[in-house]
Design brief:
This is Sensor histidine kinase MtrB. Helix content is 52%, strand content 14%. By secondary structure, the protein is an alpha+beta fold. The longest helix has 63 residues.
């Protein structure tokens, strides 16, 4: 079935063969039927002519022999009937049989003496009782016209064959009625019909095979270029942009090949232009980031000096010194994020994995940002840290991911508690960290953008943490570098949850997550009859390209 679905050449050839067989079968039945009817009609006309001649001979002999009997010559009815049958059969040379049967209308049939035959007279070994039916005999006695019937001629040795039986009521030498039959077997006609049937069947099979071969050749001329185009398209999709179709001739297939090659050249040109532009952009970001570090260091040193001496300034100047230092901090953070992004784009990011208890990573983040959560009116709560959660990870990168998620949750948590959950799979093959907030949540369609670079759920919202819009983009790249997944779920007004799932061993296969993506409290609320919110969560595949994250970049930063 898979071959049937994928191979158009097989389907076309098979369909051609089936349709050809149907057509040949119908034509064969029609032709054989016409031949059969023609043979039967010819046989009927020939048999009727021979039978009429025989009946005329029997009638004339009865008249002549009756005259001789009137002249005083002795004539035996039984002998006479036998001689008549033999005489009539001698002209057929075995092509037909002649049978004389007594008629129920004859006095001799009832036991009277006379010249009527007292038993059947047969020219060959024919079983008259089985060959000539009672209906036929009754019809012959009831009507002096010639009677015909298609039936089966049964021999005395048990063999049988189809045939035509023609009968007529005659008068013997004594003037008594009797029945005279001609039995014409269809032996020759059956041989002719068998020959025609065999010839048609042989020719039909040959025609079907020939049509199948022709269909295969014709379809091959069309399918081969299509298959070639499909293979080249697959190689183009794999990045082999120099692949082209071989074009020969000037027909439609040749024009298709030329159009395909033209399309491939244009695609190659555009892709190369985009790649060059992407390289230039990455180089620009990397170069600018590196070049800005030197003047930024100088500006930082000057800003530190000014900030330390702000007590000697008037209030407005002192406030300006504080703003200068805070904006320099933000500028340094942006440069650090840009440099990290450029390393991911260049494929230069290196994973330094070692066995780490993720509880320590989470606790460090919670201690660092606990005061920020309290200032916003909420708390940072940790769940699932009762036992060690050990995995081979790059602690610095995982801490950065958790820090981004926690700061993001605080920023959008509307002053409510933020819960960080840890878990390890039952088989120990995966670990997970989930950060849950109960703030503004995510609207439908926003999860598709939450990990995109520089994207923000609400750019107009006041921000207290000075994010760059690159935090979640870097976080998802860190997750991919570990072979893990970073996924998001959210509902408008119901908060959001970000789940980081990592293999417990570096390079291990990741099959599932020990934590659900949708929070348990959200399911419980719907279980109590609260209307179901719009589900906007979707997974970010671990195999997404670093330069094009498949989800999006910022419920915040």
């Amino acid at each position: 079935m898979r071959l049937w679905r994928r191979n158009i050449q097989l389907r076309v050839v098979a369909s051609t063969l089936l349709l050809s067989m149907a057509v040949v079968l119908v034509l064969g039945v029609v032709v054989i039927g016409q031949v059969r009817n023609g043979l039967l009609e010819a046989k009927r006309q020939t048999a009727q002519s021979q039978a009429d001649g025989g009946f005329q001979v029997a009638r004339e002999r009865a008249t002549v022999d009756a005259s001789e009997a009137g002249a005083g010559l002795s004539v035996d009815a039984a002998t006479w009937s036998t001689e008549v049958v033999q005489q009539l059969a001698s002209g057929g040379q075995g092509v037909f049989s002649v049978v004389a049967l007594p008629s129920e209308l004859s006095p001799a049939f009832a036991g009277d003496t006379g010249f009527a035959p007292r038993g059947p007279r047969v020219s060959s070994a024919v079983d008259t009782d089985l060959s000539i039916s009672e209906e036929m005999r009754e019809a012959v006695d009831d009507d002096r016209a010639t009677q015909r019937q298609y039936g089966t001629i049964v021999r005395t040795d048990g063999t049988s064959e189809a045939g035509l039986i023609i009968g007529k009521r005659m008068t013997d030498v004594a003037g008594n009625p009797y029945q005279l039959y001609y039995l014409f077997p269809f032996t020759q006609e059956e041989k002719s019909l068998s020959l025609v049937t065999g010839t048609i069947a042989t020719a039909g099979l040959f025609v079907v095979a020939l049509l199948g071969a022709i269909a295969w050749l014709v379809v091959r001329q069309v399918v081969t270029p299509v298959r070639m185009a499909a293979g080249i398209a697959e190689r183009l999709a794999a990045g082999r942009l120099q692949e082209r179709m071989k074009v020969s001739g000037e027909d439609d297939i040749a024009r298709l090949g030329e159009s395909f090659n033209k399309m491939a050249r244009n695609l190659q040109k555009q892709i190369q232009q985009l790649e060059e532009l992407s390289r230039m952009q990455r180089r620009f970001v990397s170069d600018v980031s590196h070049e800005l570090r030197t003047p930024l260091t100088t500006v930082r040193m000057a800003a530190d000096v000014i900030h330390e001496a702000r007590g000697e300034f008037d209030p407005a100047t002192a406030r300006s010194a504080e703003l200068l230092l805070s904006q320099l901090d933000r500028f340094e953070l942006l440069l650090a994020d840009l440099l990290e992004i450029s390393r991911f784009d260049a494929g230069a990011a290196v994973l330094e994995a070692e066995a780490t208890d993720l509880r320590d990573v989470v606790h460090r983040v919670v201690e660092s940002f606990g005061s920020l959560a309290e200032r916003r009116g909420g708390r940072l709560l940790v769940r699932g840290d009762a036992r060690p959660i050990v995995a081979e990870v790059d602690a610095r990168r995982i801490e950065r991911v958790v820090r981004n998620l926690v700061v993001n949750a605080i920023e959008h948590g509307e002053g409510r508690d933020v819960v960080v959950r840890l878990a390890v799979a039952a088989d120990g093959g995966a670990v997970a960290i989930a950060v849950r907030d109960h703030g503004i949540g995510l609207r439908p369609g926003e999860v598709d953008q939450v990990f995109s670079r520089f994207w923000r759920a609400d750019p107009a919202r006041a921000r207290t943490t000075g994010g760059t819009g690159l935090g979640l983009s870097i976080a998802v790249e860190d997750a991919h570098l570990h072979g893990g997944r970073l996924e998001a779920w959210g509902e408008p007004g119901g908060g959001a949850q970000f789940r980081l799932t990592l293999p417990a061993t570096a390079g291990g296969a990741l099959r599932g997550s020990p934590l659900p993506l949708e929070p348990v409290d959200a399911r419980a609320r719907r279980g109590r009859g609260v209307p179901a919110p719009t589900r906007s969560g979707s997974a970010v595949a671990a195999a997404a390209e670093p330069s094009e994250p498949s989800a999006r970049g910022g419920h915040g930063d």
